[in-house]
Amino acid sequence: MSPVDIIVVAAVAVVFALCVRAIVRSQRAGECADCATGGSCDAHRTGHCHESAKLMADAAAAAARYEAEKR
């Protein structure tokens, strides 16, 4: 095995390990695992996610603007 082969295999192993780590973390933390405000979020306590509510409101406003421009 050449040094290039070893580097490629090592890179694939690192990427695989990071993928498994991400899956395990998401299973443990639930759907908030990849949220930018996951550390300071109170969604687990209140049951309401402010980030997703803001995202949905922005999407609804954009859809309304698109529909208004179509007419």
Task: Indicate the topology.
Layout: H1 3-29, H2 43-46, H3 50-70
Please name the defining characteristics of this protein.
single chain; 71 residues; mainly alpha; 2 domains; 3 helices; transmembrane helix; membrane; transmembrane; FeoB-associated Cys-rich membrane protein
Q: The biggest beta sheet, please?
A: none
Strand content: under 5%
Unreliable residue stretches: none
Secondary structure tally, helices: 3
Instruction: Give the overall average pLDDT.
Output: 83
First-last Cα distance: 65 Å
Task: Decide which structural class fits the backbone.
Answer: mainly alpha
Helical fraction equals: over 70%
Strand segment count: 0
Number of domains: 2
Could you say which overall geometry the principal axes of the C-alpha atoms support? elongated
Pfam families: FeoB_associated
Organism: Parolsenella catena
Protein name: FeoB-associated Cys-rich membrane protein
Keywords: Membrane, Transmembrane, Transmembrane helix
